[in-house]
Amino acid sequence: MLALIAQSSPAAATSEILRSLAIIAVLAVVLVLVGVLVYRAVQRRIETSDVPFTLGQLRRMHEEGKISDEEFERMKSAMIGRAMEGGDTPRPRPASTSTGDAEADGNAEDDSSDNGDDAPAS
After folding, report:
1. How far apart are CA 117 and CA 74, in angstroms?
2. What CA–CA distances, in Å, run from 11 to 1, 4, 8?
């Protein structure tokens, strides 16, 4: 292509270069726009799927008296229902846990340390 441009008149060469630059510029703009759209879609999905807290954190708030029994049960049921519907993918469960709710939210390490019923590691 460069050989053809070199053999043609300066006006034709300039025109060919400008056309190539315009195509590259348009492709770059399209690529940036697609990137922005993908980024926004991913951010929207992350924002809507994030759970404000885990069942372990919910249990701690209940134990500390920050939420009532009724609030605890309602929020726990909502979180479990959302996970069952597939709205949030639950994390894999650890092999052994000492609490029932820790199994449900996959956060047994954090929950079991707060219970006080852990056996010391040997």
Report:
1. 26
2. 16, 13, 8
Which tokens is 19 given? 């056309």
Other C-beta atoms closer than 10 Å to the C-beta of 105 total 25
The structure tokens listed for 65 are 């008296």
Which sequence spans correspond to the domains of the chain? 2-49, 55-114
Alpha-carbon distance of 105 to 113, in angstroms, equals 15
**Helix and strand element counts for the chain (H, E):** 6, 0
> Looking at the whole model, is its pTM more than 0.90?
no
Both tokens of residue 108?
A: 């047994």
What span, in angstroms and rounded, lies between the C-alpha atoms of 75 and 82? 11
Burial of 9 (0-12, 13-18, 19+ CB in 10 A): exposed
Question: In this predicted structure, what is the pLDDT of residue 13?
Answer: 84
Give pLDDT tens digits for 7-24.
668 888 889 999 999 999
